[in-house]
Amino acid sequence: MYHMHTIHFQDLDKMAYDAAWDYQETLMQANLKIKAARFNRQEDTVLADEATRNHLLFVEHPHVYTLGKSGHIENLLVNDNRMKELDVTFVKTNRGGDITYHGPGQVVGYPILDLEYFGTDLGKYMRNLEEVMIRMLVHYGIIADRLPGCTGVWLDADVKGRARKICAMGVRCSRWVTMHGFALNVNTDLRYFDYIVPCGITDKTVTSMHKELGREVDMDEVKELLRQEFGTVFGAAIV
Questions:
Q1: For the residues 44-55, what does the mean pLDDT come to?
Q2: 196 pLDDT exceeds 80?
Q3: How far is 50 from 71, CA to CA, in rounded Å?
Q4: Is the whole model's pTM more than 0.85, yes or no?
Q5: Which terminus of the chain, N or C, has less C-beta within 10 A?
């Protein structure tokens, strides 16, 4: 059980990917500056005595394809003209992972956490993010799991030919401070995934809560449940 730490929550509502990325960077760099002052024993600055702050951001992006630093551009299957027709933009980003899609009807979560509070193990951090999703989906009767060798959260992970991803993940970590995070398909228009090879995986499909349940899902309700389960899994107070 983790010591109870505080995570500051913000729902950014609808925001362009670049703007949300810049905001994450601002929060991350503030933490890195504090950690650098502490490491360098800069007694002449108050920064050395400050505590880093943990954040959890929720946001919904306009249509955008993002390519991780280890991704392959050939997994984008459309040219610039077609992307204009689809009203979708393209961004190369500094998270891990390959290409994915963000858009309306998707809850994107960006935890900016100092893992020195939550365990300095990046693999465990990723498993915890997956656990948040798995627990939240249970509230809707959706049984999700992990797929060995593949990051994210899947349905029918152990059924050959039926595995489908409902939540993609990709993070960046510097001096144990995280950014980027997860993208949960709630009411997402899944047709946008047809124009990429999602996460570089050719033999699996994607799904959404809407598709699995056969109905529109309340986004605010999903966000509240995610917030609750995040606090439970990370042993933190979400304020």
A1: 77
A2: yes
A3: 37
A4: yes
A5: N
In 192-225, which positions are buried (b, 16+ CB within 10 angstroms) versus exposed (e)? Answer: bbebbbbbbbeebebbbbbbbeeeebebeebbeb
Q: Are 234 and 7 in contact (CB under 8 A)?
A: yes
Beta bridge mates, 108: 59, 183
Token couple for 54: 């943990």
- Mean pLDDT for 124-144 is 98
| Dist CA 157 CA 199 (whole Å) | 16
Going by their DSSP bridges, the two strands 5-14 and 54-60 should be labelled as parallel
Active-site residue 199, yes or no? yes
CA dist 68 and 157 (Å) reads 24
56-114 pLDDT, tens digit each: 999 999 999 999 998 999 999 999 999 999 999 999 999 999 999 999 999 999 999 99
* Mean pLDDT, rounded, for 217-224: 98
Look up tokens 């009411």; give the residue. Answer: 187
Other CB atoms closer than 10 Å to residue 54's CB: what's the count?
A: 24
Residue of 150, 167, 173, 199 marked catalytic: 199
Question: The tokens of 36 are what?
Answer: 């650098």
Owner of token pair 């730490």 = 5
| List of domains in the chain | 5-238 (3.30.930.10)
